[in-house]
Structure formats: C-alpha cells, structure tokens
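Got a spare moment? Tell me how you read both lines of this record:
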Amino acid sequence: MANSIIYGKYPVKNSLLAKRLPNRVLLNKEHPDQEIILQCKKLNVPYQLVDNKELDRLSEYHNHQGCLASLKEFEFSKLEEIIKNDDSNHIIVVLDGIQDPVNFGSIIRTSVAFSVDGIIIADKNQVSVTPTVRKIATGAEELVSICKVPSLINAVKELKRNNYWIVSSAGEGETSYTDIDYKGKFVIVIGSEGDGVSKLLRKVSDYVASIPLHGKVKALNASIAAAIFLAKVSESQTKE
C-alpha cells in the first residue's frame, strides 16, 4: 500500500494530468482542495473526504497538505524502449548509487524540465520510485521513462554500441563540462555524493567532466550537479 501512495497538493494535481490516473483521491474534509475535486469529477476519478488523522496515518505522518492519491505500482520502462536508433539529439541520465529520495526526486523533476528522454537506475544500491521520491518529483516521474537494470555497466555498454557518448560527472575530471559539444546522443552519468561515479563507469566513459568551482565549497550534491549538466546539454542541443 505504501508504495502506491503519493501525497501533497502538487504531486496529486500532477497525477491528475498524467497518463496513469489515480485509483482514488483522499482529501481533508475540513478544507478540501476544490481544484482537485473539480479535476476528479472531470476525469471520473473517485475521491473521498476524510479526517486529517486518516491522512496522517496513510502518509506515515509526512506533510501531505490535506491530500493523498492512490496509484498503481510504478511501471518501469525497458532499456530498449529508451534507446534511439538514429543520430538526432537525445539525452539519457544514468544514476549511480543515488540513495537519497530527495536527490532522486529532484533529478527526475529537473530531467523533465530539460526534456531528458530517459533515466536509468540500478536495481540495487539505489532508491526506487518511493512516495517521497514522487512527492519531490511532483508527478514528473509519470512524464519521463525510468528504466531499472541489473547492471549499469552493461546498460552503458549497450548505449555505447548504439552510438551514445558517455559523460561521467566527477569533481576531479580533467575536462570542464562546458568544453564538450553535446550535439547528438549523450548519456550523463551522475554519482552519489559519497562515492561518486564508480571506477568501472568512468573507465567506459568518453569524458569524465567536472564543474569548475571557485568558491569555498568544493562539491555539489547530485541533484544540483545534474541540473548544471542538463542545462548545458539542453542549451547545446537547442542551438541552431
């Protein structure tokens, strides 16, 4: 049950815009969100007015903002579904060991904002698409293909066979992320804050790129690093 619950106004509202509509919406009977009620009626999504204690219980006492939605279990895409066969611009994000749900949710949201075509995660040592991830992503997880694989290294090798360029983010990378021409098919690999991108993934990468930092802070969290890389990739790919 827990894995099918999302909570918070924006995640619930965005779920009503997605392809997979909620099974049911629960709202605080004291102050129900009228916009959500209208959308539920329009889409024939069942909704129920309940007391705040029930919302607290179902959200495991997180900040639900007076609304919850029950969804079917998240459906992951297959790797072959996100691989592009031609040479047009394409962006895939690979996440190596992201265990913080806030970072993962933020990366999903940023990926959708910059028109990423797919996100690849491992089935181990990686947070999955949990209720917290969905809350941070505010429904963006329904707008981008997310693929879970048993081996990131094998997935990246398959992408290389399909003519993708692989760029791993690392603070010690000798290439600046701004010095890469991102026209074409690119994979951006983002590692965890603690361990970064694994040595094996770096070894098969075409570039190990850094974000120059001139201030006193010498490291960025994963979601910020992803946003900086994706902003640059998007800028490069949308230029004439």
